[in-house]
Amino acid sequence: QMPGTARHDREMAIQAKRNLSKTTDPVEKLRLRCLARGSAGIKGLGRAFQIMDDDNSRTLDFKEFVKGLNDYAMMIDKEEAQEIFRIFDKDGSGTIDFDEFLVTLRPPMSNARKEIIMQAFKKLDKSGDGVITIEDLRGVYNAKHHPKYQNGDWTEDQVFRAFLDNFDSPYDKDGKVTTEEFMNYYAGVSASIDTDVYFIIMMKNAWKL
């Protein structure tokens, strides 16, 4: 479990459910429906879309979009789905770009929050190449305190890999975490935390920044 996530997840889910009744914006509604499932909710929808994307084009047409929503058990009527689809299909091509969709769906964050998230990312990205790998973690993260390492279940590398998998896009666990994936993860956590100050303190404590 990552620093400070379980409790925030619960708070966020409760808050999202509460806010759902207040909003009429279809994108905000979809965002809140995802967040009601915890900080991985948006990623989970991404995974449902990945499964829909048979030809690996990383785009979805309307039919795939609706099927993805249904498979993820998002009950949305056709008019609302069309409205959301139109918002994301900026060029009117009849398809939407998957990554753009997930970024837009991500809860907005202040610059102060983005900065502290980037500080944590840079601390973990020892090699400075914009991707966190097992190699990067060897220098910064001590696997020896992990209970599964201590009882002999996992090697050091397995501990590192599990750590990276927390942040990795669920549909693309490749042992590499990009800035985008790290930001997406923390956007979910951030949504449950009202003040920048509290978010920054949490990040500083979690990552010893």
Descriptive account of the structure:
The chain is mainly alpha-helical and 209 residues long. The protein folds into two domains: 3-105, Recoverin, domain 1 (Orthogonal Bundle); 111-207, Recoverin, domain 1. It has helices at 6-20, 26-35, 41-52, 62-71, 78-88, 98-105, 111-124, 134-138, 147-150, 156-167, 179-190, 196-207; strands at residues 59-61, 95-97, 131-132, 177-178. It has a two-stranded antiparallel sheet with strand order 1-2. The chain is globular.
List strands and helices in order, with pairings.
Blueprint: H1 6-20, H2 26-35, H3 41-52, E1 59-61, H4 62-71, H5 78-88, E2 95-97, H6 98-105, H7 111-124, E3 131-132, H8 134-138, H9 147-150, H10 156-167, E4 177-178, H11 179-190, H12 196-207
Antiparallel strand pairs: 1-2, 3-4
GO cellular component, one term: organelle
Domain EF-hand: 40-75, 76-111, 112-147
Organism: Bucco capensis (collared puffbird)
Condensed summary:
This is CAPSL protein. The chain has 209 residues and is mainly α. Helix content is 60%, strand content 5%.
- Uncertain ranges: none
- Rg for CA atoms: 18 Å
How much of the sequence is in beta strands? Answer: under 5%
**CATH architecture descriptor text of the largest domain:** Orthogonal Bundle
H/E topology pattern: HHHEHHEHHEHHHEHH
Biggest sheet strand line-up: 1-2
Number of domains: 2
Helix percent band: 55-70%
Strand tally: 4
Mean pLDDT score: 84
Q: How many strands, what sense, and barrel or not for the largest sheet?
A: 2 strands, antiparallel
Domain EF-hand: 40-75, 76-111, 112-147
Pfam family, one: EF-hand_7
InterPro entries: Ca-bind, EF-hand-dom_pair, EF_Hand_1_Ca_BS, EF_hand_dom
GO molecular function: calcium ion binding
